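Hello,

Following up on my earlier ticket. Below are the two sequence lines again, exactly as submitted.
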Amino acid sequence: MAKMTMVQALNLALRQEMEKDDRVIVLGEDVGRDGGVFRVTEGLIDQFGEERVLDTPLAESGIAGMSIGMAIYGLRPVCEIQFSGFSYFCMHQIEAHASRMRWRSQGSLTVPMVLRCPYGGGVRALEHHSESREAFWAHIPGLKMVIPSGPRNARALMISAIRDPDPVIFYEGKAIYRAFREEVPEAEESLPIGKAQRILGGKDLTIISYGAMMRPTLEAASLLKEKDGVEAEVIDLLTISPLDEATLVESVKKTGKAVIVHEAPRSFGPGAEIASRLMEKAFFYLEAPIARVTGFDVVIPLFSKEQAYLPNAQRIMKAARSLLSA
Amino acid sequence: MPRNRVELPYHVEYVSVLDEEGRLDQALEPKIPDDLLLKLHRAMVLGRRFDERLLSLQRQGRIGTFAPITGQEASQLGAVAPLMPGDWMAPSFRETAAQIYRGLPLESVILGFGGYNEAASLVKEGNDLPVAIPVASQVLHAVGLAWGMKYRKKQNVVMTFFGDGGTSEGDFHEGMNFAAVYQAPVVFICQNNQWAISVPRSKQTHSKTIAQKALAYDMPGIQVDGNDVLAVYSAAKEAIDRARSGGGPSLIENVTYRMMMHTTADDPKRYRKDEEVEGWRKRDPIQRFQKYLKDKGLLSDQKIEELEAQVKEEIQKAVEHAEELMKKYSDPLPMFEHAYEEVPAHLKEQREELKRELAEMPKEEDHG
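Thanks for your patience. The regenerated structure is below:
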């Protein structure tokens, strides 16, 4: 097995699916010659040509809308929006059409497309390049919203996203694109969409997170064990919508306490939905109020202050300790 | 059934006043007062040297990503020079030299690219919108500003900038259409610098020119040598005067070249040849303008040297001042300001939460 960054692992997934299935088309701004601004599509144009790897004009709504048409026609478009901050240009195409074409046509027309976006803070980027707005998409019925947390699960989830019969919004954490490497098998490997993973078993509390925030979450879990002797159970959502309620409920029934971590703003964020589900399905097992460690309800500040905005291990530990002492 | 030709009174002109050697076409020479010519020259030199300094600051990690403007000094400065008090500018993100010309302090640029929201608080004068990073999104704002001017019966105009890539966005077309429908006083300036990151102009649009896109909206469109500051000034002046006198919007395509990377996060060697860049170096807007000014007796090598020294000092002072301001603006708590006019209760609570955490943070490190 080769050790890969998330960028390389995603590239592998795209390459293998394109080799296997001639319906798969990659399109977006700078995805061809440049290999994508983060190099996720590097080399694909050389291997598959300009008919399957389209350097599009600079128009996000155009990219999303054209992908919808391709998908309806039977292709499997994987489109890239260069930064999630520019994906709102295509919101109307996704909301008005991609998410509901199956419903509008009573099942006769479907939109099996993947919309990839780098998201999140922590890389000293310009304005509109650091937001974490997964809740926008997760709120739309008919969409699936996937956020991997590392190279291996990114590759496996991308394979599933391309094969999924419904539109999938696929967020890729810029902060973890190259931050670490993992063994990624050359042989095909997929992970089911809609299924969370228990990364660490524990009895004292449950910490739920996803994407780039898994790193501070795991760091906090390890510090809690080392300093406080606390055994935290850690769950990586992997899919934001549809939410894997069963895995979350099962864990919280065991531990009685939950901390939810995301860098998206707190109000109406994924944590609000997760907390509600836990209230509905595990209320009588809860021993303390559910805690959220999140970005604040303001636009993420420009990069000199972004670390103060983003959740970190200290913040997560503090929330955990406050639950444990409740 | 008839199948007749619809006669459209349109054509696209290409304007150049100075050739590549800086030689003048006297018939086309605009009447620009000497002091304005020298002011423009100074702004072009400042724009270039400041760009070079920003690049070195970025490479040293003292600021973050930025979008260089080198090679596009004439294209933006020639355009804004005829604007008058009360006129507005709606820039994209590659008009730094024009913003400075219109009063943006160098310190604000450095702080902005240094990742400080406080950069915006240094803007004390002028009517301009902040940079718009989502491509072409500002074009529509220009139309709204212009409608306000028309409604209030002001003799003012709005100038909006975008690149060749921006003309592919729906917002560009919507802005052009709205402006024409409402005959709003907008001057649309396309800085066609040939590259939208890695996508060349030829793959951005199938049109032969960008100027011709004006025809679909029934407004004048003109193509200009964007590295010729006199040509850019002439075309801009004509469009501004027309808009100001109630003649509606215009589109100007400045044919120029992005000599540097898209932003400092980009590596153009992946998709374009050095020879192409070198070819454009011969058309350098500053050298051509300097030749013209020398021929006119307004400039000498000695004066250029003096100017270079002045500009260098001005930039150095700004860098030092900006770095002092960075220390002053180290507190993250102001992130809760300016979300709303009045800070709502939940944000006050979150601000207190962050305040407590910041106070506790060093203790946590002590334990480690």
